[in-house]
Request: fold
Amino acid sequence: MPANGAPTKITQGSQTKGGIGESTLRPDGTLKVTGEFAYSSDMWHEDMLWGQILRSTVAHAEIVSIDTSEALAMPGVYAVMTYDDLPTEVRNYGLEIQDTPVLAHGKVRHHGEPVAIVAADHPETARRAAAKIKVDYKELPVITDEASATAPDAILVHENRDDHHAGHVPHPNIVHRQPIVRGNVAEARGRADVIVTGEYTFGMQDQAFLGPESGLAVPEEDGGVHLYIATQWLHSDLRQMAPVLGLPEEKVRMTLAGVGGAFGGREDLSMQIHACLLALRTGKPVKIVYNRFESFFGHVHRHPAKLHYEHGATRDGKLTHMKCRIVLDGGAYASASPAVVGNAASLSVGPYVVDDVDIEAIALYTNNPPCGAMRGFGAVQACFAYEAQMDKLAKELGLDPVEFRQLNAMEQGTVMPTGQPVDSPAPVAELLRRVKAMPMPPERQWESSEGADVRQLPGGLSNTTHGEGVVRGVGYAVGIKNVGFSEGFDDYSTAKVRMEVVGGEPVATVHTAMAEVGQGGVTVHAQIARTELGVAQVTIHPADTQVGSAGSTSASRQTYVTGGAVRYACELVRERVLEIGRRKFGSYHPAWATAELLLEGGKVVTDGGEVLADLADVLEDEAVEVEEEWRHRPTEPFDLRTGQGNGHVQYSFAAHRAVVEVDTELGLVKVIELACAQDVGKALNPLSVIGQIQGGTTQGLGVAVMEEIVVDPKTAKVKNPSFTDYLIPTILDTPTIPVDVLELADEHAPYGLRGIGEAPTLSSTPAVLAAIRDATGLELNRTPVRPEHLTGT
Amino acid sequence: MDFLRPASWEEALAAKAEHPTAVPIAGGTDVMVEINFDHRRPEYLLDLNRVGDLYEWEVGEDAVRLGASVPYTAIMENLRAELPGLALASHTVASPQIRNRGGVGGNLGTASPAGDAHPALLAAGAEVEVASAARGTRLIPIDAFYTGVKRNALQPDELIRAVRVKKADGPQQYSKVGTRNAMVIAVCAFGLALHPRTRTVRTGIGSAAPTPVRAKTAEEFLNAALEEGGFWDNGKIITPSVAKRFADLCSAACNPIDDVRGTASYRRHAVGVMARRTLTWTWESYRGARRATEGAA
Amino acid sequence: MRVNFTVNGRPQEADDVWEGESLLYVLRERLGLPGSKNACEQGECGSCTVRLDGVPVCSCLVAAGQVEGRDVVTVEGLADYARQRSSGTGARGGTSLDEAKGWQAKGADSQTGEGAGLSPVQQAFIDAGAVQCGFCTPGLLVAADEMLERNPNPTDADIREALSGNLCRCTGYEKIMDAVRLAAARQSEGV
Reply:
């Protein structure tokens, strides 16, 4: 019987070493430091071929013709495939809307869209062959923004839409629209003593995971295929791949290979279908590895956004109302755009109490690169804007920005604009208090007896200042992120747990399809099994599709949902083990029948601590195995007109204080410190929790001061698809990140935990921007902020 | 593609004469990027790693003869006194790994306006020593070396042997603007060298024109202003108006473009700021050295 | 073409090498040493860092033909390299074939790395939580190990400068700083 969101009892960790709450070390750590951990790009097979993808060189065009003859004639080339070679009538895929062609059909809609694929015996042969494919494009005008997308004569990016959003959107070039209306804004506006408005722009961020898209597809004797792949969600890939390959799902086997980071960028398919198609066509294993250039075209990015906000407040600092309009650029294909719209709309007010709101969020179809999931997912863009608004309001009212936020901070019981009450701790004011209370980093740390240490100054090693023009600024921000899949999605996970005696020791094996992308889920699964089953040894089975879906490693949900599934399966295993124990030993001790029994330290013990039996003696040769699904509480869709609905299962909160030093003459920024306070409910592994917070914080820093995919508005072509020109923070750009972890249990969640991965990515960016504003006095309504913006040049 | 592996300088020149389209590769930090990203498929790669001469430097009376492949790390560590501007520039090159492989020969061969060494070489004063099997060695003044965007004065059969950089006779500085604190390509860069012996200053600007350039009008203005005010002798602080005029003239020497790394107007502005700051730093250092000398006398 | 060189003390020969191949490709695809990572192939991330004749370089930017006759240490050989350094037998050259094979057999199954024969910096990365996805880890380890060899007592700014060519996208670098500090501290205690 699958548990279905019944409130879970919060228990303390057991006495077994290495259980929850401890900073146990990663089970894959040794392999990762010796170079032996096998990432998807490390896969190798005797006789394997290399796949190569030919991508469009233009953003929007009709394909007049494709000539593959020269490529096919090259020695060493085993296959060349285009749209016409696809094996079935299912030729599109997509997470929610199947609008993405596996290979372009008659038209390309964005720069870098896959047009043809090649398999050859060496990557260079495959590249040369791909270069010999002749594609004749007839270019079309490009749709690049809201104006061009919704103009009366706009070309439709997708004609004949029949998806489930097509009926309610105001224009076919709008993927999805979510309004939220609550209270009476007109009336509330009348109560406002001050009103501030702002137009904000959020640039296109890339996940920039370090392990490029890659995988190995091996054809199997039964006509199926086995794919070794780096992904965030094996079963979602499988569901999209099998119909295109013309295979039943059981003939498409998938094993998770090592994943070199994800951050949302592996939620959509990349080379999965292409590698399988080529393997099935050639009968040989096919490996595809993107290089960094291709990787920028091979996955979706964070939606760039334009946000218009209006807030009102009374003289004593209480928010009266909020109006906003958020326009997200979804690019050429839908990907996760509808869900990003839902998040942006429902979290647009931030962690504040505002009863009267008028909200609209839309995502566009354009010819820009497709955008979809990235850490923070719709909430990031909104947080950047509403936090800028909070600072503006505080300034207007002459209030301290932190106190002003605290005055309006939501708490447990606050009703969201969607009408959903927040039914677990929401310590927004407390997080702000904590982050403000942290000691400030000393001034002028760059001064040393030998002169200025440029490594600690803006500009760093480039030696641009020895202190000239450098001004310090401090800024604060706080954000709210939903945890788990929302809006009525059936969000579940599956865990298979086995317990047996090996070499005289009880051993648990945990098998899930959870994608370990670096977050440390495997560490936590072992901890949960130790806590619940009282064993020292836990084996984590490789993730594959031989067990049920674990859902996605995204939305800060895996510890909650797959962790919940592992715990649930462990509980069932424990019950079965105790049944065996009662059967064998029940007559020897009355406690078997009367006491609350636990598994601890390899033994069955009473809650009073009395040992009843060794697990090894209970189990002997018997193995107990359970595979079960587990769900969190159900959610509801948002009403399409009013946005009302209990759409989210849990919220997560983090606050940041940024201290920056800005070279105001050159417009260069050095972030000195990014302090974070976050409520995590329960830290199952404190070391990993802090690692997540610091990593998320740094990605937020990146989009504050350097990270942006630049798309030419005239051609919709990407101008910087490389690590030379898409810059992510180095260790010299990243400050110390002190973290204050608060643990206020959410009684609805396993162990009281709260999903943590995304919240720190939200507030980090606006905190840095606020600090730069503090240093420069500039308004700065766009991120990333560039030297040009700080110098007015 | 063919891989040529000459074991000596003579063999390298012979190979280049035989295959003028051969692309020399030393540190590989430019060439391999182009190969990995499929931007370039040369017919021949001419590996210079085995030519030991290219990794040596000689400190002479007036100049350092710096082998084309001496890695930036070695310049930073060993030639800080003789070539302070170039040593500072070397420290801004990419990352430690790249500095361990790349050398000035590669910067000169690629002749990208963003090459970090160029402004330092222009400011210090240098000659590029090139050679061919047919015509032997010739010296190209650094001012005549850069002929266009990623073009230089090399003939197809020539290779860069060394660069002869004048030893510093006064303070030198180097600044580079990038949007990251390490591992960044220059948005623009500026090199400045004081030459007390000749009572002149020289400049170099990177990434702000189709080629690396000197700000000659600015140099002439400053030379005259320093002379007129007797600054070289009295060691006074340079007046803000002189520094500002110098900075403005350095900005005016730029002919930049808008690109993904920065706007033209920002580049002009930033070059001005760097010019003013490096002038302050070098002049302070000159004054300090002067005081020290006087104190000792 | 054919390329002969030494990797982790062991002579290696790669055949049919395309002239445009990088050292990184040869290590990963021809010699079965995929520990050095292919994250950017343009010298901008440091994930492929190896030591070439002792010097840390991006192996993606070394043409395969350039390593003829030279000596390469990869993350797979780091533990051995560190062990030889600490035992004073000289880190380079002179490793027997048996010794070179030795490291390949070890270290696959430990939960914590205890007893896996790791180098101090490898152990410190595990202990400090500096490993998340781990894709940047091999390059960082090679770079950090070399820095600690040169500079056993680095300041924070020294560590940041030495590792400024190695991108990490998961950790925010704080735990990497902790790991290098920890390795330095253990190293100085050990002496």
Notes: The longest strand of chain C covers residues 3-7.
